Amino acid sequence: MKTVLSSRSIAIPAGVDVKIKARCVTVKGPRGELTRDFKHINMDLKKVGKEIRVDLWFAKRAELACVRTVCSHIDNMIVGVTRGFLYKMRFVYSHFPINVSLNGNTVEIRNFLGEKRVRKVVVPEGVKYVRSADVKDEIQLSGNDIALVSLTAAQIQGATNIRKKDLRKFLDGIYVSEKGAIPAED
To answer: How big, in percent rounded to 5, are the helix, strand and coil portions of the chain?
Structure first.
């Protein structure tokens, strides 16, 4: 069965400028600018006053899920240009200490399980890598685009996957310990 009209709206906060042209959304804020293309989804995107309205006409159930998804993407863009996103990752090891360093725009992971192989993960432009000074064995990834920050965290965690060993015994790796928007400073 088709739903005649499914509609959702997102409020635009003060200090954020949103432009919509042909389902291409550009969000500008104090931290920068993000652009995302939604041309693969057949829906109406309109800026009405201080809010964005997403309309989907005559859609089936699977297509209706796209309305909330697009709203979440736009909401993440607004949070990204106002506060930004922060992922904290911790090193877990039982015997061989993991050595992680930044070389240019590449994260190099050495001495993982005592192996000589150097694992490398490229940090994309727009993601900032920081080694925590106050917490031992922690790195922080931050940026405006949640997709790039989470992708970098996933690639670092994936580089330390353990193969051909018992995963219940070998728990070494680099794992995401905390994620979310950067806390607002009071």
So the answer is: 20, 45, 35
What is the rounded average pLDDT for all residues in the chain? 95
Segment 99-127, tens digit of pLDDT: 999 999 999 999 999 999 999 999 999 99
- Work out whether the CA dihedral 164, 166, 170, 175 comes out positive or negative: positive
* Nearest-angstrom CA–CA distance, 32 and 133: 27
Question: What six digits make up the tokens of 178?
Answer: 């905390």
pLDDT digits 0-9 by tens, 130-144:
999 999 999 999 999
Indicate the residue type of 19.
K
Among the listed residues 6, 7, 14, the one whose alpha carbon sits nearest the alpha carbon of residue 50: 14
> What are the CA-CA distances from residue 145 to residues 21, 81, 126, 165 (Å)?
20, 8, 7, 35
Separation CA 28–CA 24 (nearest Å) = 13
Q: In Å, how far are 2, 144, 153, 167 from 73, measured between CA atoms?
A: 24, 13, 19, 34
**34, 77 Cβ separation under 8 angstroms:** yes
Q: What is the tens place of the pLDDT at every residue in 29-76?
A: 999 999 999 999 999 999 999 999 999 999 999 999 999 999 999 999
Residue 20 CA to residue 33 CA, distance in Å, equals: 13
Q: Strand 127-131 and strand 138-143: pairing? A: antiparallel
